[in-house]
Amino acid sequence: MYLAVFINELHFYIHFTAFGVKESVTALFSPEGCAAEGVCNSISNCTLALTVSTRYTGKAVKLNAVGLIAGYSSEEVSMIVKKSPQLRLPTVIPLATSEEHIQISPFIYRNSYSDSQQTAVLSAYLLYWQVLTKGAVFIDPVDSPEYSRSVARNFSQAVTDAGGTILKTTILPENGDIPQAVIRDTLATAPQFILLPSAGKRAAKLLKALRENGFNGIICGPDSWDDDEFINALTGVEAGDCVYTAFFTPENKSAAFLSFQKDFRQRFYHNPGACETQSFDALIFLGIGLSKADHLFDFDKNWRTIRNHQGAAATYTMLKKGDIDRTVYLNTIGIHRGSGKLLPYVRLSRQMQYSKVEDYRIIEE
């Protein structure tokens, strides 16, 4: 039997996701790993079929695959999810955040948080902790339009539900331009915070444009900001007060992460990040779900035994219909005292579980 992992062949993150998967295979298929994670012999003799393209999902069936780990972004995962009803294989999503994935097929599960969850945490931080009530939203159709619209829509709803107001929602041009008039029109509404659901250099460029036009409020972003490309592109920019969600923090001191980090460094000679830790946890959870599972009902029952699980990336509790309660981190951007370079670091998050987001009301800075 095979466990098949599908990752878009053009995406840089294939390397990091593959590392996490390889590391988790070691944990899953060793006697110690199986015992520690409750994974029985029903899958301990499986091998891993790691492909690098969603074009090969059909091969999963021919290889008698017993489960899938989906790819990186919401757009890439959507290609697999659409085929899920035909493949009829339990599929775990480690990084994509779209709400629609688990609604399309009963075979879809996630250890990533969703757009509604990450935006609810952002909203709680802004309204309950920072006591800000008025914001603006940009929608960026350039790189990942589906993702940008989903984050913007959920963020606007979360702010409204928490008692705040979105003063203006602006859709940027598809040609990639950032018209100064559009920036000024948004700032004329006097927002206290602005959401930029973009990624990498594009997000850095938008952030820079806002600061150069005099915006001094909080600029916030989703998990797509949690990327070295974004941080590196901010070199020379006065980033100001920023906050964004993340799947993972290198400041994690849990026993599960420290053990994973030690083994990972010995094999791959660098520290793991979000892709590696999320992929590691995803395959561990897939193994637990497949334990003695002859039917999707068995997999689902096993899946929901995962409660307060201390994974490499977060603490997880699996819920009905593929939903999840898990840690959502909030990162800010700081200056390294030694090099003077910008770098992400975790501040004020307290490793908040999504189910306890209302506790932000009683946290004081």
Please give a structural write-up.
The protein is 40% helix and 19% strand. The chain starts with a strand and ends in a 12-residue tail after the last strand. The longest helix is centred in the middle third of the chain and has 17 residues, at 145-161. It has helices spanning 14-29, 31-37, 41-44, 57-62, 74-81, 84-87, 101-104, 115-129, 145-161, 180-187, 200-212, 228-233, 255-268, 274-290, 296-303, and strands at residues 2-6, 47-51, 65-69, 91-93, 108-110, 134-139, 165-171, 193-195, 218-221, 242-246, 309-310, 315-318, 324-335, 342-346, 352-353. Strands 6, 7, 8, 9, 10, 11, 12, 13, 14 and 15 form a ten-stranded mixed beta sheet that branches. The protein has a five-stranded parallel beta sheet with strand order 2-1-3-4-5, sandwiched between helices. It is built from 15 helices and 15 strands. By secondary structure, it is of the alpha/beta class.
